[in-house]
Amino acid sequence: MDTGSIKILVLVIFTLATLSISLSTNGSSSNIGCIESERQALLVFKQHLLDPANRLASWAPHEDCCRWWVGVVCHDVSGHVLELHLQNPPAYERSRLGGKINHSLLNLTHLSYLDLSHNYFGGIPIPHFFGSMVTLRHLNLSRAGFGGLIPHQLGNLSHMHYLNLAGDDYYKESPQQYVENLGWLAGMSQLKYLDMSNVDLNKALDWLQTVNMLPSLKELYLSHCHLPPQHSTLLSRNNLSALTLLVSLDLSFNHFGGPIPDGLQNLTSLRHLDLSHNYFNSSIPDWLYGFSPLEFLNLGSNHLQGQISSVIGNMTSAISLDLSLNNELEGGIPKSLGNLCNLKSVSLGGVKLSQNISDILHLLSFGCISHGLESLGLRDSQLFGPITGHIGYLKSLRKLDLSYNSIVGSIPESLGELFMLRVLYVQDNKLEGNLLESIGQLANLEEVFFSNNLLNGVISETHFENLTKLKTFSGSRNSFNLKVHPTWIPPFQVEILALGSWHLGPQIPPWLHSQKQLLSLDISNSGISDSIPSWFWNMSSQFGYLDASHNQIYGEIPYIPVQPFVSFDFSSNSFNGSLPRISSNLGSLDLSNNSLSGSLSSFLCHRMKGTMSLQYLILSGNFLISGELPHSLQNCTQLVILDMGENDLNGHIPTWLGSSFQDLEILNVRSNEFHGQIPNELCALASLRILDLSQNNLSGFLPKCIHNFSVMATPDDDGHPSHFLMEDDNHIFDVFSDYGSYVMKGNLLNYSTTLRLVRIIDLSNNNLSGEITEGVVNLQYLVSLNLSHNHLSGRIPKGIGAMNSLEALDFSQNQLSGSIPQSISNLTFLSYLNLSNNDLIGKIPSSTQISGFPASSFTGNQLCGPPLTQNCSAATGEINPSMRNEDKRDEVDWFYVAMGTGFGTGFGAFLVSLMVSRRWSRIYFGFLDRMWTRILLLYAKATRFHAV
Ligand SMILES: *[C@@H]1O[C@H](CO)[C@@H](O)[C@H](O)[C@H]1NC(C)=O
Ligand SMILES: *[C@@H]1O[C@H](CO)[C@@H](O)[C@H](O)[C@H]1NC(C)=O
Ligand SMILES: *[C@@H]1O[C@H](CO)[C@@H](O)[C@H](O)[C@H]1NC(C)=O
Ligand SMILES: *[C@@H]1O[C@H](CO)[C@@H](O)[C@H](O)[C@H]1NC(C)=O
Ligand SMILES: *[C@@H]1O[C@H](CO)[C@@H](O)[C@H](O)[C@H]1NC(C)=O
């Protein structure tokens, strides 16, 4: 959902909640009071509930429960309690009811409607006794924190029309509900509406058989139910014809595979079909397009193949069509799509259309689709060519997404005629000229994303004069020069503002002071050379995200403000002084490449009550000193990145590092003055992807347990690039992608499709001795291994060929002896190899791969054969010692070597790679989820909605 729709949703829900409350308080105007036994039952029920926000304050013992009690609806004449509306407004966590549900509810003998949705009952199972409330017709227990087995006794509720048991998918820690079977559902023969989304139905082999016994069913929602792959064949074989009334079917987010089940054809009333987020892998069958009553079809995020057939023009009832994220679907949009006069929303993002955008605009603007089309999603669809003036025909367009394509040229003026446009995404293309001149007239524009293009020009106040509704303005990485009067007060109040790499400086723009709703700000690389004024510090306490990196901002950083789950990036500036105070709910802090000094000991983690939220701590490239790493760091248990590289830290590598950080993925202390051994305890960091201890004074042996770095030995699930994951949360993604691609110096586009996740060990330039432990060869997904410039001896591990993900390997400048193992020629991805300056002897294993490396990869040994000129038959003589290359000139900056190999290393690569991997994205976007909660809460507050 975009911000707009979330807001509308919140608004609607709050309005409904208020409405239902007012109905229930005023609706029963007759003088028949509440029945005493029912009032007592409700009071007992209330007594067992937890009600932190006192929502049930109106349930006072001596008041008429029918007239005054919030959420209670009685029968006008008999006074029996008929309905209980106790749902919580979603996302307003503080007012959730919890505790126990007392069986006194059974005394409400006429209750037909019970809604407890969106509360939080802490994982308790749905009480069995609900199955005895036989008068119920409407039961909504959705997203209310119930867990465990759903009681089969519910099957006794034979009058049930509406049953919603959907679990909560929003919070990772939300309890999971499951069933052993669904046979009991058959007792609800009048059921019209059934939602069991997010309930584990994996064991319910009878689910289809059972729903087929519910002849009145009109809506069925089984999204995210762990329904297994083989069940899709059931859909084909089984007789679904009993469900002739079914209007809505949602089977999204399951594990269905194979072809789209043709049994669906028999659901003759179907208008709304959602099969998205499964593994269907056929082509899209023509019968589906010919299935004329369908209004809403979502086949997004599957593995569908083939082309989009021109029979799509038969979907004459279609209102919304989503085929996005099927990246084996290819070919262009057929002309016939233009004939679908009812179509309002088309989503083909991530489909390989390989089409000229001007052709698409042409076919859309001449068909009758042009009148009604409100949303067009063509993100990452391999579009090219220019946007033509035809765009001006799409007069109803509210949302246009053309991001992540190769669209060129300037923006036509007719774009300015799209008066309805609220959301525009054109980031990551090759657009030129001054976009703002076209969009300056779009008075309804709320969100616009155009970062990472070739746009340029001078922007002044007048460009913004009509953009009064802007909430998101994201234009980083273009070459705009913003020239406004110092006293300018913009006509908008934005929430997300990204102006990275615009020319804004030298001052921090004073007009930012007027932006009272700013949650996210990117002013990186914008020529600011200023100290931070106090008003900016004050306002930054409202930020969820701030990137002011790559400027010349100077002065001290007094403190980092205290809002929950914030991310602050002040890297690559000229800040000095000591480390700032931070609060326990900071999520991410990057202060790298400044001139901060002093010790770590007073910093962080130790004065706090409870745990720290800090996940990313990046302090590399400063002048920090200390003894050992401070113990207080142990309380930052959620660290994912600990980067202290390039400082003046010393002491031992503490053993507790290994036990404190279960989620640590990056540990970088390169280029400090740590000494002593590498503790074996480090091997407990099972999540570690990047271990960089290089350029210290570490001595002793390599840890024998090195094979325990299990992430380095296991593959990732392959995932879509993250902008797929963030399909609907474009704005947030964009803000964060600014971050990643910035570090990649604008190369995001080049790398994002080929990137694999990096896993790196760099222990080079220390005093390590002993043998290279054979266990290292188990790290099969390690991409880069650097042990150079140590005193390692013994042989190169024989099984090294097993490390077949290696792209870079450096053992140079050690005392390794023996011959090079033959298996090294199995390292087919290897593009950097350095074994020079050891005591290796014998013939270099021959393979085209190996002999393709330069001679310098092998010099300073007693090796022979290609690529060296030494001929092996003659290789008995001494190698001239002068060939030993002790010269540091030869030293490669390891962090950048791999850039050329197509994966890139260092922090930039990590950021980009996290955009590619699902697992990393989960971590990252988990963080964003919480940010969203916050944004929602802020919104709720801002609009002064109260739960009751
Ligand atoms: C509910 O009804 C039963 C039997 O009618 C009675 O014994 C019990 O006290 C009632 N409970 C409440 C809380 O009113
Ligand atoms: C299901 O639909 C197919 C094709 O329309 C038809 O041949 C078949 O008889 C139908 N099955 C039932 C049980 O109605
Ligand atoms: C599509 O519509 C055309 C024209 O009405 C019709 O001849 C054809 O059979 C339809 N195709 C399908 C698969 O329904
Ligand atoms: C703002 O709107 C007015 C009235 O529609 C129009 O005349 C003016 O050109 C617009 N400004 C910009 C910058 O487009
Ligand atoms: C961690 O936090 C706890 C309480 O919040 C505190 O008592 C303890 O001293 C801290 N540990 C360190 C090593 O600072």
UniProtKB/TrEMBL annotation:
It is a single-pass type I membrane protein. InterPro entries: Leu-rich_rpt, Leu-rich_rpt_typical-subtyp, LRR_dom_sf, LRR_N_plant-typ, RLP23-like. Its main location: membrane. SMART domains: LRR_SD22, LRR_TYP. It is found in: Cell membrane. The keyword Signal applies. GO terms for cellular component: plasma membrane. The chain crosses the membrane at residues 894-916. Residues 1-22 form the signal peptide. Keywords: Cell membrane, Glycoprotein, Leucine-rich repeat, Membrane, Receptor, Repeat, Signal, Transmembrane, Transmembrane helix. This is Leucine-rich repeat-containing N-terminal plant-type domain-containing protein.
